Amino acid sequence: MLRLENLHFSIDEKKILNGISTHFAPCKIHGIIGPNGSGKSTMLKNISRVWEPQEGTIFINGKDYRSIARKELSRLVTMVPQNTTINFPISVYDIVAMGRNPHLGRFEGLKRKEREIVDWALKETHTYELKDRNINELSGGEGQLAIIARALATEASLILLDEPVSELDIKHTLTIMDLLVKLTKEGKTILVSIHDLNLARRYCDTISIIDKGEIFYSGLPSEAFSEENIRNVFHVDVVEIKSDSRCFLYFHE
Which domains does the chain have, with CATH numbers? Predict the structure, then answer.
């Protein structure tokens, strides 16, 4: 569904992405991991066209995404940014309804179909009972679920999430990760940057390790978290502990 070819991106002459080339198959959770500053967020922003690559090409369904009209691209790709903060009073329902904007004409209001989709997104994320609340009154986990609901309301087939669980408690973390698994079964393709390597190992179908703006590894989780990979990229040692059908990673300096 998604292919990146030789992406380069710099900010103030500092190279952030340095020749990223990789591809992501449909209907899977693709985990993006790497140290802080490695280029994970920048890559997601390039894919969503918040920023555009200064060199290289991004293909969505075989088509150069720069040839796709902005509004059409917004119907194909949606992004849940890191640490979303909304500085004005607005209801959860109205936030989620914003996800329908790519499908509406100028000054066009929500019709019955749009309202049904908004209700669906709220129910999928267990935020329907919060729809009349001010989003600024919610807990961090509830607010993050509402932002994910907005992304679902776009009906985009490619969903990008930048550290969606980094500041959440374990309950909301598992709720969101279980939801991502459900969405892939409904035909969505997920790219998620994530710091918790055990969480990535448990939930992701593929792992891409980014280091210094380059793809260090791309493939199966079972091979991604080798002692050599972790030592070379994160500069810590890892021990894999197996318990029944589960594997856990134990890190130490």
Answer: 2-252 (3.40.50.300)
